[in-house]
Amino acid sequence: MITMTKKPPLVEDLRNHSPEQIAELRLLLSAGASTRPDPRRPGFFEIEGQSAVFYVFKYPTGAKVLLLGVWDRDPVAEFVACAGSAA
Q1: 17-33: per-residue pLDDT in tens?
Q2: What residues contact 44, with CB distance under 8 A and at least 6 apart?
């Protein structure tokens, strides 16, 4: 989980994402949104927004976050995952 410091981390975009996506990520970081660590890559996380998932790298100091990728959330896949875990 990404721990928040007193001020939100600086967001650096490495892939020319839209200003709206960067603004949503900043909002999620400042609100302390839930994160999922990437089990294969230390320091990498997925952050779920309202309609998108953000893939980021968080510097160990917590002062900077690199935005690496954004993809739309798939409500059907999320429903299947929830239904499968309940069985």
Answers
A1: 999 999 999 999 998 88
A2: 37, 38, 55, 56, 57, 58, 68
Q: For the CA atoms of 61, 53, 37, 28, what is the dihedral angle to 10 degrees?
A: 40
- Please give the model's pTM, rounded to 2 decimal places: 0.76
Structure tokens at 28: 């999620």
On whether the CB atoms of residues 9 and 63 are closer than 8 A, the answer is: yes
CA distance 43 to 68: 12
Q: How many CB atoms lie within 10 A of CB 67?
A: 20
Q: What CATH topology corresponds to 10-86? A: YaeB-like fold (3.30.2310)
